[in-house]
Amino acid sequence: MSEAFSIFFLILCTGFLLGWLMARIYFSPVRQTMSRIREILSSGNSRLRIPLKSRRPDVQECVGLVNQMLERNSYLAQQLASTFDNVAHDLRTPVTRLRTAAEVALQDSRDLDACREALADCLEESERVLQILNTLMDVAEAETGSVRLKIKDESIFEILEEVIDMYAEVAEEKEVKVSNMVPRSICCPLDRIRIQQAFANLLDNAIKYNQKGGWVKFHAEDKGGEIVVSVSDSGSGIATGELEKIWERLYRSDRSRTERGLGLGLSFVKAIVEAHKGTVWAESCLGEGSTFYVKLPA
Ligand code: ADP
In a mutational test of the pocket of ligand 1, which residue from 202, 238, 249, 281 has the highest number of ligand atoms less than 8 Å from its CB? Predict the structure, then answer.
């Protein structure tokens, strides 16, 4: 009896030991991955990644996903840093001018005309600072999804007619012909005001970066389930290397710096369209005009 018990006890112990050993071997890649994640977290180095060493497909997939997440976080952190740089750079100029104007007024406080002029300059510069801050907040609101959209079925043709009307004077001044070639039948569920603001930004750019006597054309296509609206222009075009960057906050190409602008128009367009679950992209060649596309779910 006691011999049988000893054998049973031995088998039990061996079973436990084997089980423990197998579990250790099985979970070893998971433990290694976890210790690498801890290392990355404690170092704070966003360039570190987890090596894909394990032969287990589930661990490999998990490591791949974590690496993708680290890559995305590092990209977002870079974007944030460059946005801060751009905001600081773009705010410094008007704030410096504001300060200089105020200093001049103080030095010459008996000359009323000079004081008035300085005050007008201060107003103009503070208006610019406010405009940058308001647009930044609009973009942030649209990007975080906190913007409340009032969705209704709307005619794209009518929305564009109103936008074209708003810019009629600007277009006339630059002798740019704007044509609305969108079929009247195309309707889409959207927030009229917000989408109008988005198309207004696209039209503003299409006129601004155009040549005297140029053209802008709006087209739209119902692709069954999605509506694609395009804005083509005969303007200066965009270099291939810049096509990705133009959607970033405060990005302005060096060629555009002679024109008015904050570099926030396209990031606003992108945020608004994405809030509608749509997508935006551009096709262009330097010197050959550009086409901006807005795809919205129907
Ligand atoms: P802004 O026009 O205020 O500079 P945007 O965000 O609207 O800012 O545009 C970013 C940049 O993209 C512009 O500075 C310009 O270089 C480029 N861009 C946008 N639209 C056009 C266009 N239709 N033709 C040529 N370049 C354009």
Answer: 238
Q: Give the contacts of 285 (CB within 8 A, at least 6 positions apart).
A: 237, 240
Within 8 A by CB and 6+ apart from 51, the residues are: 36, 63
Nearest CA to ligand 1 atom 20: 205
- The rounded Å distance from CA 97 to ligand 1 centre is 25
Residues 46-76 pLDDT 10s:
888 888 777 788 888 888 999 999 998 888 8
100, amino acid identity: T
**Closest atom of ligand 1 relative to the 251 alpha carbon:** 10
Going by pLDDT thresholds of 50, 70 and 90, the confidence category of residue 233 is very high
The strand pair at 177-180 and 215-222 is best described as: parallel
Which two tokens mark 28?
Answer: 């070893």
User: How do residues 132-179 score in pLDDT, each as one tens digit?
Assistant: 888 888 888 877 777 788 999 999 999 999 999 999 999 999 999 999
How many other CB atoms are found less than 10 A from the CB of residue 193? 12
Contacts of 297 (CB under 8 A, 6+ apart): 189, 225, 226, 276, 277, 278
